[in-house]
Amino acid sequence: MKAPAAHAPAADLARAAALLEERYGPYPEEGGPILDQLVWFLLSTRTTVENCDAAYGALRRGCPSWELVAEAEPEYLGGLLRPAGLFRARAKNLQAALGLITQRFGSPSLEALRSWSDEDCEAFLLSLPGVGLKVARCVLSFGLARDYFAVDAHIWRVTRRLGWHDFPGEAPSKAGADALQDLVRGRSGLVSFHVNVIRLGREFCPAGEPRCAACPLSALCATAASY
Predict the structure, then answer these.
(1) What is the pLDDT at residue 227?
(2) pTM to 2 decimals?
């Protein structure tokens, strides 16, 4: 039985990135404090971007420093995070993560990671409550500007339909995420590519019926001909 793999011609990858940037534009690769990035991505799981932004905004207004977040009453903190859903679990994980970060670095800051290796950064981030592979790699990519490509459910689905991988399952596996990361690593503009593939998934390639006729990548897609 043939093992699943990720594969795509370099010309297809370059063309897809260019077409997506034509439609959606480049995404600003501005970074910012690493801990800010981590918290935003923690709140982004299993919710919409709009709900995540609402919860993150409420959090920063209600607790302007990470020290205040760490010391907040769980009920109060959960109320701030309510727009993202699962607010009790999010509050618990956030305070536990801040505790471990403070214990390791002496304050609620992850700036020391800038001098760490990619592997050590990923291992530490994955040790924090609530942080899975996608969140860890988003922080590495967006927060640390490392050559990483985080794979979420949209990217997993779109790249499979494009014919770029044949890993099973509706959710990204570690092996599949690693294979897709290896496929695109070394390319410029990975942050924009990550964001724009997600945008494409939401607009044209949802979990239900894809809108292949209007999709800007239809000429490159292995699945489009069957719709």
Answers:
(1) 74
(2) 0.94
